[in-house]
Every structure is written in structure tokens, then in C-alpha cells.
Design a protein that fits this description.
Order of helices and strands: EEEEH
Strand order of the largest sheet: 1-2
Shape: globular
Structural class: alpha+beta
Distance between the termini: 29 Å
Oligomer: single chain
Largest sheet: 2 strands, antiparallel
Radius of gyration: 13 Å
Number of strands: 4
Amino acid sequence: MSGFVVYCLNETGEYEAQPLENRIIHSKVLSGFWMKPEWLWQDPLPNVLNIAKELNIKI
């Protein structure tokens, strides 16, 4: 998944590219939330329960 770029609004209202740490996107809005961009392009999509387990979400 090379070439994947995440953009966020900065303090002046302009979009800036954000660095990925270990191929993970960390939310700036939801504290502690993160995701792997490759989940969005998997075919078939990953199992929701497996994702929840990896995110340490109790279902």
C-alpha cells in the first residue's frame, strides 16, 4: 500500500499530508482510535469481529 496519503485540516484551514506511523492512521478526533488503511482495500473486506479484536474493542 505505498503511496497512501492522509490529509487533515491544519489550524489555518488548509489540508496537510499527515505521516503514517507503522502503516497506521491515528485519529485526531477520536482519542485512541486508529486503523490500517489497507483494511479499506481488502477484497473481501476484513471481518468486523477480527477488526474489533485488533482495536481492543469488546463486542
